[in-house]
Amino acid sequence: MEAIKDRVAGKVNGFPVVLFIIALLAFEVYILRIIALTDDPSGLWIFFPVMLVIITLFTGFTIIQPNDSRVLIFFGKYKGTVSEAGFWFVQPFTEKKKVSLRIHNFNSEKIKVNDLHGNPIEIAAVIVWRVIDPARATFDVQNYEQFVAIQSETAIRGLATTYAYDLSEDDKASLRGNTQEVNEELKNQVQSRLEIAGLEILESRISHLAYAPEIAQAMLRRQQAQAVVAARQKIVEGAVGMVDMALRALSEQHIVVLDEEKKATMVNNLMVALVSEVQAQPVINTGTLYQ
User: Is the pTM of this model over 0.85?
Assistant: First the structure.
């Protein structure tokens, strides 16, 4: 396949051409007036060729808005691209394909796919892109906007299968825990796929991420269990530290001397009071420690 390279098309300011056409129209009126006064039809040999020139010139005008472009095709041959804003006159009888250079957003649909661990998840993304090579966007792909949609969704599917939804002990990164890294990886994958069409990816980010409905409740319970275990671990670590601090303070300040059996009992009581979710009820011992 022949590589198409974008190049600047030849053009001139359209206003002088408009003035030239006005002059030709005035000349045509003058010719008709002469024909009417002299009743000599030979002037039509000048009138019709000039009119043909006027019609031909009208096919060469084009208006380019900011961040817009026209790809010029003359009988199947690429003649160049006009991307400078203004009113221009180009080669007559050229086909002018409009290619917008503005920034576009592509919002993907929610895609159901399995993550690295095989869990079904729903994922969607936003792709911010623009055309930087109008010629390649026109000639190298059939429809560059549809090309963006298909290739972006393919990249999203491929990305989701290489990351776990959430971080576990065996994972180095996850979709939920490493958002910036995942977005950068998605941008690189989409850019590599769309480069052939002369498109540039400005930004990509995950817009929706969730477990599939059929496993959402089970995964929620698992996350809740993990949170409870982590909280319990912190509570136990804090309780052990507080018990150790209490025993050291009693020993250093000589408040009371406890043997190993009474230390074990005290540790048990303190751990129950600190770790239990139920409010502890104090029991007052009016006898000796050994009763």
Answer: no
Please provide the distance, in angstroms rounded to a whole number, between the alpha carbons at the two ends of the chain: 98
**Number of independent structural domains in the chain:** 3
Give the Cα-Cα-Cα angle 262, 267, 270 (nearest 5 degrees): 125
Average pLDDT score over the chain: 82
pLDDT recorded at residue 291: 47
Total Cβ atoms within 10 A of residue 129:
23
Same domain, 42 and 84: yes
Burial class (CB in 10 A: 0-12, 13-18, 19+), 143: exposed
In angstroms, the CA 198 to CA 137 distance is: 5
Nearest to 235 by CA among 192, 277, 289, 181: 277
Tokens of 144: 């560059």
| Span 269-284, pLDDT tens digits | 666 665 565 565 555 5
Exposure of 103 in the CB half-sphere (CA atoms within 13 A) = 7
**Hunting for tokens 């770790």 — which residue is that?**
275
- Measured CA to CA, the distance from residue 182 to residue 158 in angstroms comes to 12
Q: Which residue has the higher pLDDT, 170 or 48?
A: 48
Three-state DSSP at 175 gives coil
Residues 88, 115 within the same domain: no
* Residue 1 is assigned to a structural domain of this protein: no
CB neighbourhood size of 247 (10 A): 15
Quick check: 15 and 87 in contact, CB under 8 A? yes
What's the sign of the alpha-carbon dihedral 186, 188, 189, 192?
positive
> Which candidate, 31, 49, 50, places its Cα nearest to that of 40?
31
* pLDDT on residue 231: 64
Tokens standing for residue 89: 């006159």
114 lies in the same domain as 189:
yes
* Residues near 136 by beta carbon (within 8 Å), at least 6 away in sequence: 4, 6, 196, 197, 198
